[in-house]
């Protein structure tokens, strides 16, 4: 199958931001008197909608408290997230190859669009990405299909010629719900066997295997 549109998750797919995310959650838990969580427990929430991740790690369920905690997390992230986010060595070469093949490139993430743009601008690669659907401009967050559909609509792309690449079960569920092909990459916290339960065209060790 020849794909013309490539949509990517961000965290653990194009970039590793776990250091910044762990730092922010550790601060959040400490300042709110919550029980500490291990780094692995925090890492396993990466890619989830932020209210869900916060709820899992803090035990809070009240909507007003989750909103307050998310705002507090965002303040922490402003001070340390971008400097602790680094693209994988395969990211830029793959994006450039796709551009040379005249493919559409999008990012669909539960991270905020502005935070993603900060990293892309830092690395001088924003011009390689045609659209970004972040959590603040998604109709509903992943694993709902809406962010993928929004990106496809902006790109005027056909679902049958489009693929979503991600590192988590949330990404696999999103692609399945959206009705597009999915490729998993094992650069996140999700093991190979977990992806076999979902439709996929391949499970990759790195993005270099997408072409």
TrEMBL record:
| Lineage, opening ranks | Bacteria, Bacillati, Bacillota, Negativicutes, Selenomonadales
Q: Name one Pfam family in it.
A: HAD_2
A molecular function (GO) held by this record is: phosphoglycolate phosphatase activity
- Respond yes or no to whether keyword Protein biosynthesis is given for this record: no
Task: Keywords in alphabetical order, please.
Answer: Hydrolase
Q: This chain belongs to which protein, by name?
A: Phosphoglycolate phosphatase
Source organism: Pectinatus haikarae
Enzyme Commission number(s) from the entry? 3.1.3.18
Q: Which SUPFAM superfamilies match?
A: HAD-like
């Amino acid at each position: 199958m020849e794909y013309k549109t490539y949509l990517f998750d961000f965290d653990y797919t194009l970039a590793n931001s776990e250091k910044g995310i762990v730092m922010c959650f550790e601060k959040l838990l400490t300042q709110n008197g919550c029980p500490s969580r291990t780094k692995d427990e925090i890492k396993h929430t990466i890619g989830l909608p932020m209210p869900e991740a916060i709820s899992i790690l803090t035990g809070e369920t009240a909507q007003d408290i989750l909103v307050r905690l998310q705002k507090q997390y965002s303040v922490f992230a402003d001070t340390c997230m971008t400097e602790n986010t680094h693209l994988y060595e395969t990211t830029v070469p793959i994006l450039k190859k796709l551009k040379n093949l005249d493919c559409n490139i999008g990012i669909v993430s539960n991270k905020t669009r502005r935070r993603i743009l900060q990293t892309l601008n830092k690395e001088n690669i924003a011009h390689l990405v045609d659209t970004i659907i972040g959590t603040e401009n998604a109709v509903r967050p992943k694993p709902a299909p809406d962010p993928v559909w929004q990106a496809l609509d902006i790109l005027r792309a056909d679902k049958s010629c489009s693929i979503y690449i991600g590192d988590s079960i949330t990404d696999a569920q999103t692609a399945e719900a959206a009705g597009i092909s999915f490729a998993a990459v094992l650069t996140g916290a999700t093991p190979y066997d977990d992806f076999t339960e979902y439709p996929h065209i391949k499970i990759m060790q790195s993005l270099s295997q997408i072409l």
